[in-house]
Amino acid sequence: MQHINWDNLRFVLTVAKRGTIASAARELGVNRSTVLRRIAAFQDDLNCRIFEPSATGYALTPQAERMIQAAREVENTLYDMQREIAGSELRLEGELRVTTTDSFMVSILGPILADFHRAHPRIVVDVLITNSVLNLDRRDADVAIRPTGSPDPPLVGRRLASLPFGIYASPAYIATLDTESWRDYRWVGMESSLRATPPGVWFDATIPLSQVCFRSDSFVAIKVALENGLGAGLLPCFLAESSSVLAPLTGPNVQNLTTAMWALTHPDLARSARVRAFIHHLASALA
Questions:
Q1: Mean pLDDT of 258-282
Q2: Of 167, 171, 194, which is closest to residue 182 (Cα–Cα)?
Q3: What percent of the chain has pLDDT over 90?
Q4: What is the DSSP string of 52-76?
């Protein structure tokens, strides 16, 4: 057996978890050919087959099952140790990985991050923009700034603000309406991860699919579509109010449609000086 490149194991474990090359490539942020090449290299190093391709995806061979299970246990132990070491860090310096949504970044976080840098110039903030939920167990991020009604355990953190929603459209689209009934509006809807959020569930339950002309997995993209007159749509009020174009519309009752913005971290990281300073700064800025 040759020397094993253990970085390739990360690709093998992701395919084993996701079941397909395409899904693993999306999670890893690479193309399919890179994933295939890394798997082939790992199999060559071990001189054995790890996966059996099938019509539905990639399944582990019986010989590889035990090895992959042991590798997962080692990987989880390393992540646990990494979080514990990071959580005991008392210096206000080094890297801090923050994940948030595009709508928060565009409308709220810019000046807050600039002020944080001025207060703590030795902390380098890496911002990961995604509407998907990253894995804080594996330190995909140290802090997640997320809309949620109730954080999933074991994450801990602080509730930063309430986020009401409203219905908005451009004056150009409003001028085309022959009726004030929302049932006759052309609607811009939500797709992918946003459909599982409270606004997405409300939209799917309220707006007929036949009236939807456009969908997106990004509230920023929905805002742009509304500004360009595609129709009416649901937006967080903080995002809509940052627009010089959009105007509120009457429609189905959204008065009680709110969620909350949280700053979340893993319990092992909650003692980290960088994490504590960042969450305190966010809470103070948004108080």
A1: 90
A2: 167
A3: 45
A4: EE-SS-EEE-HHHHHHHHHHHHHHH
Q: Look at residues 22, 65, 67, 15 and name the one whose alpha carbon lies nearest to residue 40.
A: 15
Q: Which residue has the tokens 């490539």?
A: 25
Using DSSP, state whether 196 is helix, strand or coil.
Answer: helix
Residue with tokens 């890297």: 95
Q: Give the separation between CA 280 and CA 275, rounded to whole angstroms.
A: 8
How wide is the angle at C-alpha 277 spanned by C-alphas 117 and 94, nearest 5°?
60
* pLDDT score, position 1: 46
- Judged by DSSP in three states, 275 sits in helix
AA letter at 219 = F
CA dihedral 202, 27, 14, 137 (to 10 degrees): -70
H/E element, 97: strand 94-100
The pLDDT tens digits of the residues spanning 143-202 come to 999 888 788 888 888 999 999 999 999 999 999 998 778 888 999 999 988 898 889 999
Long-range contacts of 270-274 (CB under 8 A, 24+ apart): 270/87, 270/156, 271/87, 271/88, 272/86, 272/87, 272/88, 272/89, 272/142, 273/89, 273/90, 273/91, 273/92, 274/89, 274/91, 274/92, 274/93, 274/94, 274/96, 274/120, 274/123, 274/142
Q: Model confidence over 33-76: pLDDT tens digits?
A: 998 898 888 888 777 788 887 777 788 777 677 777 776 776 66
Does this model's pTM top 0.90? My answer is no
